Amino acid sequence: MTTRTEAPEAPTAGWPTFLATLSGGGVGTAIGLAITVAVTLNPIFVTPFLVLLGRTLFLAMVLLLVYAAARAWPQAWGLRWLPAWLQPVVALAAVAPLATLAIYLQSTGGDFVAFVQAPGRVSGFMWIAGSALFLGLLTALGAMLREREAQARSQALQFELERSRFEKQALDARLSLLQAQIEPHFLFNTLANVQALVETNSPRAADVLKSLIAYLRAAMPRLHDGQPTLGNEVALVRAYLELMQMRMPDRLQFTVDVDPALAERRFPPMALLTLVENAVRHGIDPSEDGGRIEVVARAHGSGMGNGSGLHLSVADTGVGMDPHAQPGTGLSNLQARLQGFFGSGATLRLEEQPPHGLRAEIEVSP
Amino acid sequence: MTTALIADDEPLLRERLTQHLARLWPELEIVAQARNGREAVEMFDDLAPDICFLDVHMPGQNGIEAARAIARRAHIVFVTAFEQYALQAFDQGALDYLVKPFDEARLADTVKRLQARTASRTTSAGDAELGPVLDRLADELRSRTPLRSTLQWIKASVGNSVRLIPVAEVVYLRSDEKYTLVAWAGGDALIRKTIRELADELDPGCFVQVHRSVIVNLRHVAQVVRGLNETADVHLRGRTEVLPVSRSYLHLFRQM
């Protein structure tokens, strides 16, 4: 019995608990133990077997009732200061000798002196009270331990349920990432700008359409079309930033500084774009004055091959992330996507960029 | 002469609207072009144009908020790109609107309606209904912004930088004298917010206060073990610390 074990009483103790304790195999256990004790003690007792059995049965029933009552009304005993699990134990320890004494006093017609002076009776009392105490306490503690385990199991089950709910949410998030990459709002606003350029026969129209096509092709949900590379990702980021700059030329400046030698590096699709879109959505777009976005990718460690580490950053000088801003599906599972792709050596960190703005960094260890 | 204001944060779209209006309604004078809602309201107050074309999505003050400030002093035409919910409200409120990208025929309809109204000197939806419709729209728009009522990021100083920690990654928060310790997947950090402030701001479906000084993220709980004297311990997934649950918070786990 460890100190951790305790009686986990139901929040609504009382008659239901009392009856549950009695019906839940309690009576059967008590009768079984009473018969066992009577049979075991019979050879050393002069008392007829049936009388002995009557005494042990009576005692077992009294102890069962006391145990059930102690469990059902833990606060009614004037023992509030005792831990809940100890209360039935103390009650049993007190009642077992007293009830045995009552049996023996009844047999001597209430004469205490006659009882004390008969050595056979005293040793009989010792045997019965001792067995009652020993078996009663053992059974009670065993019952409480079983109950506690059952409760722990149901609690574990609850947490399992909660966890599978959270995991389902995560799965839903991944699915919606596949489905809803292109926001209609972005698409129609961009098309409205393209329309304006086309109508005025602007020479920029062709370039902007090229960017839009590159963006749409990359952002379309797809499973796998070859090895995703950093080169592809950077082209997508550039296309997106060019489109946004066409739309808000007075509010968005950007630089993309990526070592060309890194173009063939494996890179999870949409990972860098997610950070750039986030910078526009939460940094530049809400700002009347706009700002600047700087995208940098560098190798660190030795060489440019797939073995060297990677360091990427997206920094903006926008209004900064509002602490209540929803991260968005892409951003909230980006860390998991990076680790799924690169292993546990990949980290994502976001920090404030003084004096205002956000800096996001992806670090891939060599 | 009829005058108009155009407000849109995207210059190409302001120009396009100006050009089409010049062709469809040569007498209309565009007296102001605003880049956001605040500028629109300022320019309106200066120039009092008869008609305002307001983009719904603008930085700072948006088009709906600008319309509320201008109220019934001008004919308002909203310009929007695929604001599905807003479109319903526009229809119900009998407000004029253009959906980007719009064609010239659609703009011609709007111009005809505006010409009729300015000729008869009635304002658009010029009844008492305009106010409530705009209020509803503003609410609608606000509820669709990516801002949530509960805290999504915790800002914590780590070294020389201020990190933004997504609340989903926060395992628990524990008060530490004047500060609060944030334990998340990436380490520990101290922030100045108190446990009480955090308890009010965090999503109660996920973050549960289990002790006067401890808030735990249920997603990171492995199990809760009951202890002596009406207490319990919270064990965390992938961490060795054990957090206390005090008597007055134990009921949170009773139903489980």
Sequence-ordered SSE layout with sheet pairings:
The complex is a heterodimer of chains A (366) and B (256).
Chain A: H1 15-41, H2 49-72, H3 86-107, H4 112-117, H5 119-179, H6 184-199, H7 205-219, H8 230-247, E1 252-258, H9 271-284, E2 291-300, E3 309-316, H10 328-332, H11 334-342, E4 346-352, E5 358-364
Parallel strand pairs in A: 1-2
Antiparallel strand pairs in A: 2-3, 3-5, 4-5
Helix pairs in contact in A: 1-2, 2-3, 2-5, 3-5, 6-7, 7-8, 8-9
Chain B: E1 3-7, H1 11-24, E2 29-34, H2 37-47, E3 51-55, H3 63-70, E4 75-80, H4 84-92, E5 96-99, H5 104-120, H6 130-144, E6 153-158, E7 161-166, E8 170-176, E9 179-184, E10 187-191, H7 195-201, E11 207-211, E12 214-217, E13 221-226, E14 232-236, E15 242-245, H8 251-254
Parallel strand pairs in B: 1-2, 1-3, 3-4, 4-5
Antiparallel strand pairs in B: 6-7, 8-9, 8-12, 9-10, 11-12, 13-14, 14-15
Number of domains of chain A: 2
Quaternary structure type: heterodimer
Q: What is the CATH third-level topology name of the largest domain in chain A?
A: Heat Shock Protein 90
**Residue-averaged pLDDT of chain B, rounded?**
86
Q: What general form of chain B does the structure show? A: elongated
How much of the sequence lies in strands of chain B comes to: 25-35%
Which structural class do you get from the secondary structure elements of chain B? alpha/beta
Low-pLDDT stretches of chain A: 1-12
- Rg value of chain B: 27 Å
Protein model, in words:
The complex is a heterodimer of chains A (366) and B (256). By secondary structure, chain A is an alpha+beta fold. Chain A has two domains: 15-145, no CATH class; 167-364, Heat Shock Protein 90, CATH 3.30.565. Chain A has helices at residues 15-41, 49-72, 86-107, 112-117, 119-179, 184-199, 205-219, 230-247, 271-284, 328-332, 334-342, and strands at residues 252-258, 291-300, 309-316, 346-352, 358-364. A five-stranded mixed sheet of chain A has the order 1-2-3-5-4, with helices on one face. In chain A, helix 1 packs antiparallel against helix 2 (49-72), helix 3 packs antiparallel against helix 5 (119-179) and helix 7 packs across helix 8. Chain A is rod-shaped. By secondary structure, chain B is of the alpha/beta class. The model of chain B has no long low-confidence stretch (mean pLDDT 86). Chain B is elongated and about 85 Å long. Chain B contains eight helices and 15 strands. In chain B, the strands form four sheets. Chain B has a five-stranded parallel sheet, sandwiched between helices. At the A-B interface, helix 5, helix 6 and strand 4 of A face helix 1, strand 6, strand 7, strand 13 and helix 8 of B.
